[in-house]
Prior knowledge:
138 residues; alpha+beta; GMP Synthetase, Chain A, domain 3; 3-stranded antiparallel beta sheet; 3-stranded mixed beta sheet; 3 helices
Amino acid sequence: xxxxxxxxxxxxxxxxxxxxxxxxxxxxxxxxxxxxxxxxxxxxxxxxxxxxxxxxxxxxxxxxxxxxxxxxxxxxxxxxxxxxxxxxxxxxxxxxxxxxxxxxxxxxxxxxxxxxxxxxxxxxxxxxxxxxxxxxxx
Length: 138
């Protein structure tokens, strides 16, 4: 890969801070209440969900332009779940990507666009074969 951009961030644990090298991100981190935490900061799953949603929306826009489809008012919601991995006793992730598409892209046409975006999106490529990702047209 010929890198066009490299993001750099440093974190010191789930109950510390996450800081990007340019200072635009400087967030307290904390465990969510569902995992026994005090819910006093963001968590890696939220950060991953935000990044995946933004990247997938961009990939969908690219695919839609190629298909001459209007997705100017699209909204992507990424739901990132963490849970116990039954195979090794550790933790694993699962993702549901929900796309709110314009009425003319409901059903099979919208699902086809999502599948093409899923084949294009860098986050989808990184997770393919590693974690389950479900695509849902809302």
